[in-house]
Amino acid sequence: xxxNKTNNKGPQQNVITNDSLALSESAMQQLNAExxxxxxxxxxxxxxxxxxxxxxxxxxxxxxxxxxxRSSNGSASPTSMHSAGNDTNSNQSNDTDNKTWNLWxxxxxxxxDYQKKNGKQLKEMIRMGIPHHFRGLAWQHLCNAHCSTFKExxxxxxxxxxPSEKLIRRDIARTYPEQEFFKDKDGIGxxxxxxxxxxxxxxxxxxxxCQGSAFIVGLLLMQMPEEEAxxxxxxxxxxxxxxxxxxxxxxxxxxxxxxxxxxLQEQAPxxxxxxxxxxxxxxxxxxxxxxxxxxxxxLNLASRVLDVFISEGMEIIFRLSLALLLSSEKELLAMxxxxxxxxxxxxxxxxxxxxxxxLFQRAFALVKYNPKKVKRLEKEYMxxxxxxxxxxxxxxxxxxxxxxxRQRLDELEAENGSxxxxxxxxxHLQQQLVQAKLQEAEAASTxxxxxxxxxxLREKNRELVDQSKVTSLQEELIAVKxxxxxxxxxxxxxxxxxxxxxxxxxxxxxxxxxxxxxTLTSSKQHKVALQELQEEVLSARFRETKLxxxxxxxxxxxxxxxxxxxxxxxxxxxxxxDRCLHKERSRVAVDNERVLRQExxxxxxxxxxxxxx
Length: 613
Description:
Elements: H1 25-30, H2 33-51, H3 87-109, H4 111-117, H5 119-128, H6 132-142, H7 150-158, H8 165-172, H9 180-183, H10 188-203, H11 213-221, H12 226-239, H13 242-246, H14 251-267, H15 269-278, H16 299-312, H17 315-326, H18 329-333, H19 337-354, H20 356-365, H21 371-416, H22 419-463, H23 467-518, H24 522-612
Helix pairs in contact: 3-6, 5-16, 7-12, 8-10, 10-11, 10-12, 11-12, 14-15, 14-17, 14-21, 17-20, 22-24, 23-24
């Protein structure tokens, strides 16, 4: 929707006259009833403002010329920069302005659709300059400030107190002092400028208030009411990273200077070498440039710079900066430092104020801008800055240490300057020397005593028998002897049984021999065979019994060997435990000896230090 508020508006030089609102019939047909009503209200407000004695006539009303309102500073038409003395040129300018007015009216009314469908064309049109009457709305759309919540917060912020109010009051008189809107002390211009800056100092307490920000706010107030100007300014500071330039550390400004210097070195090495030879650093002239050239160019060109800045970002600042330098490279190479400073800060801005289109043409034709290289330069700068910060921390530490040493040296020199104090100091040192020698003698005596105790403990460890281990060994010995007695008893029983079997066997054999002699018949021979089989069975049983006895004896032998093995293992285990115990005690003794030796060395060192004094 076409929109142009004038309440609390920056410069009343932006007032729309009846002639400027005389749109063509086709344009009026494209506007709806609500938009026509708004235009009528704007027309009425403009009449009231024109009747106000404090209102400005025109932004560029220099030399008494009364140019057309539509061809004022914000116009994108090149013919608006010339005098209105020639009627033909004036008519052509009016025709061009009417076309531009109609086109931008359509764009502002259908911003989102037009931006999606004709983004590149819109970008080129912004580079050519946004018409003054649509600039406020276009800026809000470009940075999405038209839907910002800060508009609602603005009135609430004004009711709060800011710690920077005194500084703001002191500095606002220096902001655009040549403009009627900001010239009067306690006037409406200075009041709205104070309100916007104060509100932002409450929103962003880290940055607070910085003097350079007032020029950007003033430029915004010349295009829109204070609520909208505040929303756009907050967006510029946060989304476009302008707040980084205003931080106390100035790290972002240093980064921009570093990037500009490297880009100049790449695109104009001769000029860069000349700057270095003259000691002409870019910080001497380029610092205001990164604040959107608000203090470098006049309002017309500064507004056009802000047009492209809001559209494309910091790239346009680098392009314009390099264009200023590259376009005047030959002149700069022939000048000294004072001449270069005058040319860059005064002559070039005055020249391009008359022909802004030429500056933008050169910015996009002469300057090569590579976003990837700019990003790489940023990484290089951050690495270099981190290294410098580490070096600064180390330097501060060394300076602090040096200061403390100097203070100590001064104190010692002051103390040594008095003879009486010198004698007292010498006596004190002698007392310290005597005490150190006594401590050394005591330490040596303690070391000897501890060494003797260590030797005694080692001897006792060799002779010492663990009573608990002796008891366990005795119990094991008793158990082994009991098992041995049981085995012997079993052996005796088996031997007795074997002896009885042998006797029975002999008796049986003798009976069998007698019976064979008496047996004569065949039936008796059969019995003899049976008896022989029984004898073989008895012989087998006898052999079985004998083998059982041998097996029992073998088991007994195995038991004896296992017992002997257990005894050996117990002895080995006890030996290992004794060895570990002795090793641990030896280690403790060695540690004690080392600690004592360290104490002795420290005492010796203190004694030597005392003697050296």
